[in-house]
Amino acid sequence: MLKIAYSDLYCHPLPDGHRFPMEKYTLLPEQLLYEGTVSSENFFIPEHMAMDWIYKTHDKTYVDRLFNLELTKSEIRKTGFPLSRQLVDREIHIMNGSVQAAVYAKKFGVAMNIAGGTHHAFTNRGEGFCLLNDIAITANYLLDQQLANKVLVVDLDVHQGNGTAEICANNPNIFTFSMHGAGNYPMHKEQSDLDIGLPDKIDDASYLKLLRENFYPLMDKFEPDFLIFQSGVDVLATDKLGRLGLSMQGCKDRDRIVLEAAYQHKIPVMCCMGGGYSEKISHIIEAHANMYRLAQEIYF
Question: Which residues form the Histone deacetylase domain (predicted)?
Fold first, then answer.
């Protein structure tokens, strides 16, 4: 069964009425239920994450200041969100949503988090709508609990997974692969284990060729026993922030490449959703929904 982390906390408006980019977290599960791709049984509500697991990945001083709402105005501004207790509670549930989804992926082959993909959170700071890093926390949890020996992070969001790269830089059991817009945020890139910088307006054929040429050999060389897939849909040509040129079909083909490879190699994969900022919310929902449709098609 496809298991999907989802909580009402994902969708709550922020204190000042700021909703961007929250709206999709309500609409995506509604769409999946409406069209029959999933049923209510597919969803689970993440539990509150134990602080020990957050401390294993993030600097304790930073975490304590975050939880006590003591970040400076400059630090808060860099995250893009007004800091509040509600926001911190939301973040904790997102973190455990990815961890619990990873455990389900061990059982069923694949699992999803409706949110997550918070790859701009560093060891000691948040950036770009990310306060804590669910990708790194999940990878560390899997390794610590001996649920995996080698974790491959496949980050195909349009923005480099800079926080993930920084956190995981010295861990030989985590390989970070980021394929992103070369001229896009963040302007200062960290060093992933493998970075592929993409030109603006790249089309489907060129993008998918690069993905196949780099992802397939990486699977053979690193030999992971778990995949974490950051599947941001800000690669779409319609995205306001992305600047790439992928069509809806191209984005779906991208997801198929990753999921089919994981399935064929019998490697569990946890998918977290990442970014998506198209002018029409329907484009964002359709692109994200394709991942769930593919998972059902390939695995179940």
Answer: 18-287
Distance CA 199, CA 244 (A): 7
Q: Which of 58, 93, 119, 120 is catalytic?
A: 120
What are φ and ψ of residue 83, in 5° steps? -75, 135
Peptide bond into 186 cis (omega under 30): yes
According to the CATH classification, is domain 3-299 in 3.40.800.20?
yes
Q: What is the DSSP letter of 130?
A: B
What is the pLDDT confidence band of residue 22, given thresholds at 50, 70 and 90? confident
Rounded CA-CA distance 54/49 in Å is 8
What phi-psi label fits residue 41: left (phi over 0), alpha (psi between -120 and 50 degrees) or beta? alpha
Sign of CA dihedral 35, 37, 41, 45: negative
Can you tell me whether residue 2 is helix, strand or coil? Answer: coil
pTM over 0.70? The answer is yes
User: Is 120 among the catalytic positions?
Assistant: yes
Are 181 and 242 within 8 A, CB to CB? yes
